[in-house]
Specification:
heterodimer; A: 187 residues; mainly beta; Rieske Iron-sulfur Protein; four-stranded antiparallel sheet; 3 helices; 10 strands; globular; B: 570 residues; five-stranded mixed sheet
Chain lengths: 187, 570
């Protein structure tokens, strides 16, 4: 189930409950739009900065990084910040050196991934200027934004889930739900 | 009871069965004040925080025959930092992810287990636990999601839960509670997230809050003038993430506080009471009755989280009621326990090289800080020891037989930090510097990093030192009347016994992982045991990764917890 949406599996009761699984499994209230995972047609809103709460356009993002933190918002404007598992990081990395898989998920040179570290579920809110890469804010795992957020260094066991994007005249829209597991690894 | 031998290579005289029996021995104030030598009723063995046992069946003569008698996997990874707590043959150990195991202390038989279901999306910087506390017929676990959980000691069933704070705002709990007069005292972690620290007491029977004392004063309260910029006190840190100590005769609690938030002091001008301090609290009301701040306007992530040990020592020609504490800032402090809870400064000495203090006022203990080594916003500065300090949280130990304190320390490491102004997001890292910008460095010509040091508490002279050329030291220390010092802490998975008087290594055992948990010792049916959890993780593992880049250490110290119990083979 490496490349499936764990939370979809959870809703089907596919997770065998361990203490750790409880961290990332999603309860039945997923119908709550604030807690439901990002869906096709959602847009993204800034979590921080001068445009906090505003919809993200590709030209709002600093070229070359760092990433910005965001939450999905449904077409009615409901921000899906009811679960930290919906935290998204979005970065304008351009097209150079991007893997085919990542290129398929990006729009206007912008990539989006789950902002929850696969190690201990901390926000991946930091940026390495040296490596031009995402860094987890707890234990320093480094993720490659150009290559599917694969792990470059640190204790994280796996890449971040990707969030496919499309652009409508610069307005970033979510093309599909998370591709890959969100959050920490179960035991 | 029956006697038997456990295997040819583990020939140990054991008493099997149900030493804990159906009659659990309730823990009382009297027992906590004068804990029986055969039990280990609290994390550091006594209220005074000595990490000392008067048991001497295992001693310098026979420790070479120490062998494992049982072990059990905890089933979880991350840093195991809790000592086995033992009450009349029943052992309680907390593990990462807010779990508790209850075991027969003689044979490791499983009695019950509590696994907390942490909230969806929960994350903590340190997914650890530093222990449970016992009182009455209950076991108390401060859960990571800032909820205090009371468990029935016999069954593990939840007796009550009390919300301490909102984890979504960055609060979490990792320390063991301190029991004082029927109340369960807890503190909070979150100094990297912009919390406001406090100590809160809960009725052990009902879970009802009895008092709550913030470690940052609100406007108008004593000390509030040390927060010169409006509103900085609200998110100023002074977390309370380690267990306090207690002087039961004076009824005064001593609790350590953490760094200021964010890390760079120029963003919160003033001395910032009570960051990086020891606060003295009234044992009945929790009111602050005294304090000592180790350094002002904290800017180095040098928490003063460890409460000082309550120790009497020679001073000025007589025996002084004192406090002794090796601080993260690299200095060993001798303080006085004064009337009413006041704390006086007596003297201090660096136990590792430190380049920040140009001197310390002999009357007040206030350091003169070298601005060249004080980082600020937009101002990079190097400081040594680095942010993990001369020692981090692992416990020192005091042995009254040798009048010696044993300090697990690290040196020859530095950081170079430069602060930024960051927007605070509740529950997220908010220090003013990102992890990739820590600029951790070491002196590769020094020849060692970790060490275990012994100091005479009366003279301040170092008695001996053991140095580790290829490891940091993250090992809490246990010392015993058998003239032993026991500790792990190194990345080679070893658990060691030293001669308390000479520092000679007398025994070692290679465990499954790195030992960063405090050892404990107890006796059941005439047999003394030594117990410790081995499970590397959290900051030692992160630091090991940095050292793999800097000096080529193996970045992969195995993780996964095992509780080991040792006794002397016949």
């Amino acid at each position: 189930m490496q490349d499936q949406d764990l939370r979809s599996l959870s809703r089907r009761g596919a997770l065998i409950g361990t203490g750790l699984a409880a961290w990332i499994s999603r309860p039945a209230r997923a119908e709550d739009p604030e807690s439901a995972p990002p869906q096709a047609g959602d847009h993204l809103v800034f979590l921080t900065g001068s445009k906090k709460g505003q919809t993200i356009r590709s030209d709002d993002l600093p070229a070359g990084g760092p990433q910005m933190q965001a939450y999905p918002a449904d077409p009615n404007g409901t921000v899906r910040n009811g679960s930290r598992l919906n935290l998204v990081i979005v970065a304008h990395i351009g097209d150079d050196g991007v893997s085919d898989e990542t290129r398929a998920h990006m729009a206007d040179g912008v990539v989006a991934y789950s902002g929850i570290c696969s190690h201990q579920a901390c926000p991946v809110s930091m940026w390495s200027n040296d490596r031009h890469a995402f860094v987890c804010s707890c234990h320093g795992s480094v993720y490659d934004p150009r290559n599917g957020a694969e792990v470059l260094a640190g204790p994280a066991p796996r890449h971040l889930a990707a969030l496919p994007l499309k652009s409508e005249n610069g307005l970033l829209t979510i093309a599909a739900g998370f591709v890959g597991r969100v959050g920490m690894q179960t035991s | 009871m029956k006697k038997y031998l456990v295997g040819a290579s583990m020939a140990v005289l054991l008493m099997a069965g149900t030493a804990y029996s159906a009659d659990y021995a309730p823990v009382t104030d009297a027992r906590l004040k004068s804990p029986e030598p055969q039990n280990w009723l609290m994390t550091r063995g006594n209220y005074q925080g000595w990490s000392y046992s008067s048991l001497d069946q295992i001693n310098t003569t026979n420790v070479k025959n120490l062998v494992p008698v049982w072990a059990v996997s905890t089933g979880v990874d991350s840093g195991h930092e809790a000592p086995p707590i033992v009450n009349n043959g029943m052992m309680f150990v907390s593990t990462p992810y807010s779990q508790v195991m209850a075991l027969d202390a003689t044979n490791g038989n499983f009695l019950w287990r509590y696994k907390r279901k942490l909230p969806e999306g929960f994350a903590a910087l340190h997914n650890t636990s530093r222990g449970v506390a016992l009182y009455g017929n209950k076991v108390f676990l401060p859960a990571l999601d800032a909820v205090l959980v009371a468990l029935d000691a016999k069954t593990g069933k939840v007796a009550w839960e009390a919300k301490v704070e909102d984890w979504k705002d960055g609060y979490y709990m990792t320390m063991a509670p301190l029991i004082v007069k029927g109340k369960v005292l807890v503190g909070v972690a979150g100094g990297e997230f912009g919390v406001r620290g406090f100590v809160e007491a809960f009725d052990a029977e009902t879970g009802k809050s009895a008092w709550k004392t913030y470690t940052i004063p609100a406007p108008g309260e004593p000390g509030s003038d040390t927060w010169q910029k409006p509103d900085t006190w609200k998110t100023g840190g002074a977390s309370t993430w380690m267990t306090g100590t207690y002087d039961p005769d004076a009824n005064v609690i001593y609790w350590g506080t953490g760094n200021g938030s964010p890390w760079f002091g120029d963003q919160r001008p003033g001395d910032n009471l009570y960051t990086s301090s020891t606060v003295a609290l009234d044992g009945d009301t929790g009111k602050i009755v005294g304090h000592f701040q180790y350094h002002q306007n904290e800017s180095w992530d040098w928490d003063a989280m460890n409460a000082p040990m309550v120790v009497d020592f020679q001073n000025g020609g007589g025996l002084k009621k004192g406090l002794l504490t090796p601080q993260r800032n690299g200095y060993l402090y001798w303080l006085g326990r004064e009337a009413g809870g006041n704390i006086s400064y007596l003297k201090s000495e660096p136990y590792v090289p430190q380049n920040v203090f140009k001197g310390i006022d002999s009357e007040t203990g206030r350091p003169e800080v070298d601005p060249a080594h004080k980082p600020g916003t937009g101002k990079a500065a190097q400081f040594c020891p680095g942010l993990w300090g001369g020692k981090d949280w692992p416990y020192e130990a005091y042995n009254p037989k040798t009048n010696t304190v044993y300090i697990p320390s690290n040196e020859n490491h530095c950081n170079n930090l430069e602060g930024k102004v960051e927007e605070r997001v509740p529950g997220q890292w908010w220090t003013g510097v990102a992890i990739p910008d820590f600029h951790f460095t070491v002196d590769t010509k020094a020849g060692f990093y970790g060490e275990l040091q012994a100091y005479d508490v009366n003279t301040g002279q170092r008695s001996w030192v053991k140095r580790y050329p290829d490891s940091m030291n993250w090992g809490s220390v246990l010392t015993t009347a058998g003239d032993l010092v026991l500790a792990g802490g190194t990345n080679d998975r070893q658990f060691r016994a030293y001669d308390a008087k000479t520092g000679d290594e007398l025994w070692h055992f290679k465990t499954n992982s790195g030992v960063i948990a405090p050892p404990s010792t107890y006796e059941v049916n005439g047999v003394q045991y030594i117990a410790v959890a081995s499970g590397y993780g959290v900051d030692p593992a992160f630091q090991q990764l940095l050292m793999s880049d800097l000096v080529g250490w193996n970045p992969d110290v195995p993780q996964g917890g095992v509780i080991w119990v040792f006794a002397v083979s016949k």
